[in-house]
Amino acid sequence: GAWLYLRGMQSRVGLKSIPVDFIVFDELDEAPQNAVDMAMERMAHSQFRNVLQLSNPTLPDYGIDRAFQETDQRYWLLKCQSCGEYTCLEDTFPDCLVQTRKGVIRACMKCGAELNPSIGEWVPKKPSITDKRGYHYSQLFSHYVSPESILHQFRTTTNMADFYNLKIGAPYVEAENRLSVQEVLELCGDDSIAQYDTDLCYMGVDQGKELHVVIGKKHPNKAGRIVHLGVYKAWEELDRLMKMFRISRCVVDAMPEIRNARAFAERHKGKVFLCYYSEHQKGKYVWNEKELMVSANRTESLDASHREIMEQLLILPARSEMTEAFAAQCHNVAKRLEEDQETGSKRYVYVKLGPDHFRHAFNYEAMARQNAPNWLFPELQ
């Protein structure tokens, strides 16, 4: 008495052509977000609106991991037949896999006895959540994958991300591919956020519902010093900042308000450039003063600004609510390896894990500052 539709996530036509009551997303982390939104819209009429999301996780706070965090988070806890204690293999890995004379066993974390993966129960970590149920599966309690092979791969793998994603069923990101809040805040100096500066400065602006602004300048011993962080409502407020900080070059996100961004650039010709990312571009940024545009490879530009924080080449204003917001939004971006399903080619991309406007405003500021002509700063030559 019902219809079953099988659809890929690449075709908008296929997704929007049918009304549904129940959606099963397979490999959610590989699905484009706009396709997920399109599929969910097909339940607008439904009185049921049931959703089941399945996926190997990839990054923390992204895709299936973010969805799982919103559930009661059920884990399969194994019950020890010797002492009666329960063990969560995922929480205690790799200590729960123990080498014995018989081989590698799943061991009770209290008495060390071997555990039977069939004897246990699903236990929620967040029982207070009752409207969304989530289950965490891993190969740790599989009857088809031996604990010995899992432990061996853990000790020998050169790809820890795939190991945790596919074997343990856990999100994973290499430390160098995601900035931590703490390592950003470690760059804070003693100076509070400035309201003006007499030196030549550089500005980055990321637009959305609000305008996130990062202003910095060159530094003789570092790559740069950030002197101002702010969130503004109106484009006209940026004109004041251009004067108060003697902005030599400004890079602005061209989208989505192209008209306002271009009008701002027209008011400050030769100083303000609209940024367009091009995945095919390699190497140096292309500055077009006639069209008031700058073109850059998104991943390469984010790599460059990411490196300034990782290598502690930057000085931030003193710790405050604004610098903490800046650090949190820098943390909300991570780099992952993506594979083209049609060609098999692979490339690294930066993925949004939460609000990230300050992260991109900083990237635009770094683009402007890193490409400023050195003749303006003889002391830096």
Write out key terms for the chains shown.
381 residues, alpha/beta, 8-stranded mixed beta sheet, 4-stranded mixed beta sheet, globular, disordered C terminus
Nutshell version of this structure?
The chain has 381 residues and is of the alpha/beta class.
Written overview of the protein:
The chain is of the alpha/beta class. It contains 12 helices and 18 strands. The protein has helices at 12-16, 33-41, 64-69, 89-92, 147-156, 160-168, 181-185, 236-244, 258-267, 298-310, 321-331, 357-370; strands at residues 22-26, 50-54, 74-79, 86-88, 97-100, 103-106, 120-124, 135-136, 201-207, 211-217, 224-232, 247-253, 272-277, 286-288, 293-296, 314-315, 333-339, 346-352. Strands 14-15-13-12-9-10-11-16 form an 8-stranded mixed β-sheet, with helices on both faces. Strands 3, 4, 7 and 8 form a 4-stranded mixed β-sheet that branches. Strand 10 and strand 11 (224-232) form a beta hairpin. The longest helix has 14 residues, at 357-370. The protein is globular.
What would you call the structural class?
alpha/beta
Mean pLDDT: 93
Q: Distance between termini?
A: 77 Å
Query: Helical proportion?
Result: 25-40%
Q: Give a quick account of the main beta sheet: strands, pairing sense, barrel closure.
A: 8 strands, mixed
Summed up, the helix count is: 12
The value of Rg in angstroms is: 25 Å
Strand content: 15-25%
Number of strands: 18
Layout of helices and strands, plus pairs?
Elements lengths: L11 H5 L5 E5 L6 H9 L8 E5 L9 H6 L4 E6 L6 E3 H4 L4 E4 L2 E4 L13 E5 L10 E2 L10 H10 L3 H9 L12 H5 L15 E7 L3 E7 L6 E9 L3 H9 L2 E7 L4 H10 L4 E6 L8 E3 L4 E4 L1 H13 L3 E2 L5 H11 L1 E7 L6 E7 L4 H14 L11
Parallel strand pairs: 1-2, 3-8, 9-12, 11-16, 12-13, 13-15
Antiparallel strand pairs: 3-4, 3-7, 5-6, 9-10, 10-11, 14-15, 17-18
